[in-house]
Amino acid sequence: PHSRACPVSVSPGAAAAPVAAMRVGAVSARAGAASRTMISRLGFARAPVPVVRSRAMAVLGGGARRCLAVSAAAPQQEAGGKSKKGGRGKKSAEEEGPYSKTVRLPATSFNLRANAVEREPEIQGYWSEQQVYEELSRNGGGAPFTLHDGPPYANGDLHIGHALNKLLKDFINRYHLLHGRRARFIPGWDTHGLPIELKVLQSLKAEERAALGTTELRAKAREFALKTVDSQREQFKRYGVWADWDAPYVTLQPEYEAAQLEVFGKMFLNGHIYRGRKPVHWSPSSRTALAEAELEYPEGHKSTSVYVQFPVSSAGPNVPPELKPAVEAAAVAVWTTTPWTMPANLAVGVNEKLEYAVVEAGGDAASGWARRSLLVAKDLVEKLQEVVGAPLTVKGLLTGAQLEGCKYRHPLFDRESPIVIGGDYITTDAGTGLVHTAPGHGQEDYLVGQRYGLPLLSPVDDAGNFTEEAGKFAGLNVQKEGNVAVIDALREEGALLKAEEYEHKYPYDWRTKKPTIFRATSQWFASVEGFRAAALEQINATSWIPASGQARISAMTEGRNDWCISRQRKWGVPIPVFYHATTEEPLLDAETLAHVTAIVRERGTDAWFEMSVEELLPASRRAQAGDYVKGTDTMDVWFDSGSSWAGVLQANQHLGLQYPADLYLEGSDQHRGWFQSSLLTSVAANGTAPYRQVLTHGFVLDERGLKMSKSMGNVVDPREVIEGGKDQKQKPPYGADVLRMWVASSDYSSDIMIGPGILKQTAESYRKVRGTLRFLLGNLSDFDPAQHEVPYKELPAVDRFVLSRLAAVVSDASTFYESYQFSRVFQVLQRFVVADLSNFYLDVAKDRLYIRSAGDSARRSCQTVLNHLLRGLLTICAPVAPHLAEDAWLSLPYKRPTPSVFQSGWTAVPQQWASLPEADALLWAAVLELREAVNGALERARADKAVGASLDARVMLYVADEGLRARLRALDTSGNGADQLRYLFIVSQTEILDTPGPARLCPFSEAFGTGEDAATAAE
Fold first, then answer.
1. 696: β partners
2. Which residue from 102, 199, 298, 749 puts its CA 20 to 30 A from 953's CA?
3. Residue 459: in which H helix or E strand, if any?
4. What is the pTM of this model?
5. In this structure, what DSSP letter does residue 838 have?
6. Residues of the chain under the 70 pLDDT cut
7. What region, left, alpha or beta, does residue 713 occupy, with left being phi > 0 and alpha being psi -120 to 50 degrees?
């Protein structure tokens, strides 16, 4: 809001031409509160203002400006021959004579075109040659900083999500390196597991696969993994990411594998690892157990759900006597979405707090049932009636606790089973309120079975086929024909009440994209219950960004079951256990662990598959070698990567790495993945979290907000962003820095978008920054700070004001880098470059730079500021756009203080720059507001053909606030060639009026402001 009316007039340079005069409104900053409001709105010139380009004018005697009047007959020519109408006039010898040679135009080798495809690799070669990263990360004078890299999987090329992740890490590391911290970054790769094993097998012919032994398979898997590591490493390097690329950690390295075995050993000896037979997620398509983190739950999975009756054979001791006949004549009604688990049914669970009803079914729909009387939760009677299409009449009520101990007969097998108390998982949200319980095929079922001493029946093999225990269903696949056969058998026995399609979320193997099953197998488990409380305590002691991450991982840890860490694969780290050939009792103790770990450290885990039992056992056990066989299970790959704190951080503390790490940074899906597996292993082994702070980012979508897929044709390949596509008009080569600036400009705390339009906008932002740097460099071509820098106290007021803006921008950028808010760094940089520099300071500085003599004090003071601006912008840009910053640094026209911009450190801002008095800040806010008003009036005058260039005009200005008027006069009479209003407005003359009268005579005059002064000015 404008606090005062301030008439401003603009007239042609010749005072005797009132017909062309005009007036505009501007702002007074007389009232303190209103002035602060104005400054806040302007943001010290952060908001964009219209640009009016000045032209370099020829120097007349004493350096005075040449003031040109408007002529209707012919447009005036500026120095350099450009006409006021924008055309290029013919230069005469006279025109080129005394004036054009006096213009000092910018000169620099720094090109406006980045030529990134060639230039960026050259700069990366320069960094390598100068050993910039190595020098800073090893010999920096500050404290170490450890950002621990979560290892990407060594399978295929990098995608845009990889780029997002690694570039965020690089921003952080480069920022800390600029501050002198020893930010050594060791990149990693996850190289074991099923996907690589499958890739190898898929590359072979059927006969080759059949003849392939374990050692040969492992050799081919190693070769494939290392080849992929080399490919991905080169792609990461092209992004401009700094790291110990020649010494990464790879989970197949012997020293890493040995460290992983030590973690396993610690957990085992601490009592947190055991072997047991219990139901686990099993992938028939992969023939292995899976952890929760290896599952995905796609939408649209359809199962055949069934309502089934089990005839009651005897009432339990808690059934009321009057209801005993009705209960024994009834059948238990259950509901399941996995009919194939019916052969494994050993109990029916009830909730002891729920009320159950004995109901009688009428009508033809129940004519095929073995029994018309059913037991069902009272609250679900109406719903069941609708489902089965038969009226249900309630004959009696009793509680779940009263049903405990009742017996029923299985409709397909000759066995009797009990009704048992389940738990709170039994509700009336769906089904019948009575739960089919198969301890070999469900976690809650297993726990209930443990309480009641039920056997662990799981008649399904590794391929997902029924075994002989399933009777007539043996050999059928449980997810295909076996499921149909069970339903048909139930129908034949009169036990099927209803079968219908049911759409729900169902666990799929995240690698094969095929559905899994839950089945009981003998596996190795980490008992999370033994250290759950300690893990939750460490979660609370960790800083989570965003804060919601803490609640997310806490909930996952609180509800986590024991972690199945064994896998039935060949390509992985073996579980170093021996089994007695007769009893199958495991042999695993401190001595055998230490011996095997020492062998692995020397030879790698291939030794487990190549050496004999006798060689693998310690000397004290070798005599028993004939009694034992080696285990064949390998470890879950999440145990591999989850042990990286041991294999990387602890193992390399002599290199300056810290354990716990300062920061882990990955996608938000890693709360149930790497963040959690790392937490569990570290807490179980050492009692502490492996990280002090955890930062997460979202996923990348196309610019319509859709998930990327090859079938949709919306995949953005980071290599094409950098190098361009086959059609470079459609997919131009933007270079790595534009890709990096896209990351920096995005709010990665949630999902972010990318596409051609977004990349084009980012490239334009990049060009604006590059153009600004080029202007700064070009105007420093004859400047050497050691000789020409002007002391701060001798700088004109406008220069001191701009340095105060630079100080604020550097401070803001540092704050946002520290808090990982890179999009706000980008915003601060863009606003400063466009609003403060391009639209104001660099615009008004051109005449000082172009037409003053080389050593003129006003020119040298301006160059002093330009140099500070350049140095400040380079350090702000460097973490995000390092090639751009380095390219500009290598183009410095004076001797470079250091070989690399990164070795120069973060810009140190003198306190006096940031200490601009409040009165000066208010003054410059008013000046910028007035300048905006003048530019607006000039545009109107041009539209009316009253003036051409702004130098055709004279400004008449009236400011009602006497204090502001006095300060403006002080600027206008400073005589320093920089602060006068005619320079700041880029006009030929300015006149500050004591009364508004003369301004009112101008035909274009208008009041600019509100309140009484505005009304007076309008009279």
1. 666
2. 102
3. none
4. 0.81
5. I
6. 1-98, 1003-1019
7. left
